[in-house]
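Quick entry between incubations.
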Amino acid sequence: DAGITQSPRHKVTETGTPVTLRCHQTENHRYMYWYRQDPGHGLRLIHYSYGVKDTDKGEVSDGYSVSRSKTEDFLLTLESATSSQTSVYFCAISEERASYEQYFGPGTRLTVT
Amino acid sequence: GENVEQHPSTLSVQEGDSAVIKCTYSDSASNYFPWYKQELGKRPQLIIDIRSNVGEKKDQRIAVTLNKTAKHFSLHITETQPEDSAVYFCAAQWTGANNLFFGTGTRLTVIP
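Done. Structure below.
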């Protein structure tokens, strides 16, 4: 597996609380992505980054924000968690644009009660 | 944006038989089509990909075909084995995009 980790791996939080998930890579890849995975929906892109401080929205970005202050770290923040954000969150990295292989992190299971 | 449809959602085959999963895409400008395999509780991993200038690609028991005119592509697994049991995702990227659009997944079960 590529050098990509996610923290925490599991989290239970209450509705209305802020949550930050961290993705860390040691591959020096330019692109980083946050997906959520839900039954019946596959993998849906939340946000992605194409460089330090360069980010863009994906198809399900409402309620989420991201930051990338260093090449190796990409943070996903839920400003005020809702039950609809209960999901498994995957970070992915790729050397260049999406037409290169994406390597996925181990995932974070988030439960919002 | 791109829309990717994947069928079937579940597929059961006997060990040794072949399995075929099909995906259609909406944007004729799409040019990259990867397939990912996700075992239970694990992360998705790329198993094969194809670009729009190629009609077919093989890697041992796995092959992918692309029909640009009809805008569909398929994953073929021959001589299936129990370890092929997993969820398979297709994806597409259209020219100029920085991200992939994934299908909803196919749960393949290989019965010993």
